[in-house]
Design brief:
Strand 8, helix 11 and strand 9 form a beta-alpha-beta unit. By secondary structure, this protein is an alpha/beta fold. The protein contains 19 helices and 10 strands. Strands 2-1-3-4-5 form a 5-stranded parallel sheet, with helices on both faces. The chain has a 5-stranded parallel sheet with strand order 7-8-9-6-10. It is flat.
Length: 444
């Protein structure tokens, strides 16, 4: 939790500054006093760990000008304004400008304490949320690529933030195309190892001798490249397709892990593809190695189990490709949205990405349909429509949510423009956004 305990008191009257400071100090707060707004502005930065109490009428820069400057620096900084008798209209104007509240002289000290406590709680919550957002964006931009609001994706992002703080080795398994390598990147980036080496080795791309040399090195003096175990020291080594390791390589890897000690100098993230449903990751590895690597375990859900995320991802991918190819994003009708939701997507997100690109290309040519794309000749990834149906109401709601989400992003959160484009009255739009968990602040 962010430490928030400071109060900047700004008033040109020394007695008033001291009086407020002494009272709030007795309440357990750390106070700073300033005779001029200009002096306070030198200290009050964007993430000031506290709040401001300021008089409205001051020589030089008055309280209203001061408030305006503060809101330009940090629009969410709580500012409590102090006003003399007869200046209440000015205080009301300050509230419209974003002041937290105001006190009229002479004021009740207990009321001031209650206001300060409330403002502090608001500031603490906001700074905690900022800190979390910064954590997500520093491991950041990678974690945010794990799109979706389904329970599966919400849980995955939470697990990544938890596991990223650990030094334990990790096994990530799941079907092909579910984002296992992206998840490994996120685990590395969101933790303390984020600035350390990140080394990725595809085990299936080497024969046994070459893989042994790549991972552990060899006596070949002509090869100047560091072995992966050494290259990743202090950081993260990701082993893709770990289920393909031979017995000999598994034995070498287990020995290398045992020699590291605890906590491990190098964190290993082993990625196991569930390409053969009859053989689990555990069954494909020797037990002692599996249990050393599976200190922590993540299993990624297939796309077909992520519900409305499918439409969210498809529309985002289409927008990205439309921007790349310099054309208009294709628009789905209700039937096409239902077809996308019904398809089983055996190739998961990777397959969805391919279909989105082809949808953009054929839209640019003015030919083809989503249905034609979903009937690929490639048997391995053909997304035949599933037999498991859903009530029509669920398809309609998913399509409606996608339309509002897309329009809000395109209009950058402008409610008026969204109302005009979708021909919806404000109350209806507000009700639907609340129903689908959409918040205007996410689009600004």
């Amino acid at each position: 939790m962010t430490q928030v305990n400071k109060i900047a008191i700004v008033d040109d009257e020394q007695d008033m500054r001291q009086s407020i400071s002494q009272w709030l100090a007795l309440s357990g707060y750390e106070t700073e006093t300033y005779a001029k707004a200009e002096e306070a502005l030198k200290v009050l930065g964007p993430d000031y760990p506290g709040i401001v109490v300021s008089d409205i009428k001051m020589p030089g820069m008055d309280g209203m000008q001061f408030l305006r400057r503060l809101k330009g620096t940090d629009s969410a900084l709580p500012v409590i304004m102090i006003t003399g008798h007869g200046d209440v209209p000015m205080a009301v104007d300050a509230m419209r400008m974003g002041a937290f509240d105001f006190l009229e002289k002479p004021f009740d000290p207990d009321r001031m304490t209650k206001l300060v406590k409330s403002a502090m709680n608001k500031r603490r919550l906001l700074l905690d949320n900022r800190s979390l957002r910064n954590e997500l964006s520093s491991g950041g931009k990678i974690v945010q690529k794990l799109l979706g609001d389904s329970p599966e994706m919400t849980r995955l992002r939470e697990e990544i933030l938890d596991l990223a703080q650990s030094d334990g080795h990790v096994i990530i398994d799941g079907e092909t195309g579910t984002g296992k390598t992206l998840t490994a990147h996120a685990l590395h980036a969101a933790g303390a190892r984020g600035g350390k080496p990140f080394v990725l080795v595809s085990c299936s791309a080497f024969d046994e001798a070459s893989l042994s040399k790549r991972l552990f090195g060899a006596d070949d003096l002509d090869d100047q490249r560091l072995p992966a175990m050494e290259e990743a020291r202090g950081g993260t080594l990701v082993l893709e397709d770990v289920e393909t390791l031979t017995e000999e390589i598994q034995a070498q890897l287990l020995k290398a892990i045992n020699e590291q000690g605890t906590p491990s100098e190098t964190r290993i993230i082993a990625i196991c593809n569930q390409s053969n449903p009859e053989v689990t990751c555990q069954e494909s590895m020797r037990p002692d190695l599996f249990f050393r690597l599976a200190t922590l375990h993540l299993t990624l859900s297939p796309l077909r189990k992520r519900g409305d995320d499918i439409l969210t991802l498809f529309s985002r991918f289409c927008e990205q490709y439309a921007d790349e190819y310099g054309c208009v994003t294709p628009k789905l009708d209700g039937q096409e949205a239902a077809q996308i939701l019904q398809a089983p997507w055996p190739g998961n997100v990777r397959q969805l990405l391919n279909v989105a690109e082809r949808a953009v290309l054929q839209s640019r040519r003015g030919t083809g349909t989503i249905a034609s794309l979903l009937m690929s000749d490639d048997e391995e990834i053909r997304p035949v429509v599933t037999a498991d149906g859903k009530p029509l109401k669920e398809y309609v709601e998913a399509f409606e949510r996608m339309l509002i989400d897309n329009t809000m992003r395109r209009q950058k959160g402008s409610i008026i423009n969204v109302m005009e484009e979708l021909c919806l009255p404000r109350r209806t739009l507000n009700e639907k956004m609340a129903k689908y968990g959409l918040q205007r602040s996410d689009y600004l």
